[in-house]
Design goal:
Distance between the termini: 30 Å
Shape: globular
Number of strands: 4
CATH architecture: 2-Layer Sandwich
Order of helices and strands: HEEHEHE
CATH superfamily: Beta Polymerase, domain 2
Helix content: 25-40%
Structural class: alpha+beta
Mean pLDDT: 92
Strand content: 15-25%
CATH class: Alpha Beta
Largest sheet: 4 strands, mixed
């Protein structure tokens, strides 16, 4: 799981971008942040146009241990969505924006 500092950073960035929810999934759920290869995030409520900027703020961030980040939008109905919603951990919940629709 992620360190508290990393969770705070992700939550702050999610708030800046108006995310409704952010889920952590993948190797960080079963390994420490130091041992996980990357951070896998699923985000809801960020428009396609702003996803790259959201990802840029997280990618290689010192607060995240300079780990690569994979970020997908739940609205895009990725094949991983059922797994993310079943096994992922909700790490941020804000307000759903109509912009993301």
């Amino acid at each position: 799981m992620l360190r508290e500092e990393s969770l705070r950073f992700i939550r702050a960035v999610a708030g800046e971008f108006g995310a409704a929810r952010v889920f952590l999934f993948g190797s960080c759920l079963s390994q420490s942040q130091d041992h996980a290869h990357d951070l896998d995030l699923a985000v809801e409520g960020i428009s396609e146009d702003r996803l790259d900027a959201f990802w840029d703020r997280l990618m290689w961030a010192e607060a995240l241990g300079r780990k690569p980040v994979d970020a997908i939008r739940l609205e895009d109905r990725h094949w991983l969505n059922p797994i993310i919603l079943d096994e992922g951990v909700l790490i941020y919940e804000g307000q759903l924006s109509s912009v993301a629709q």
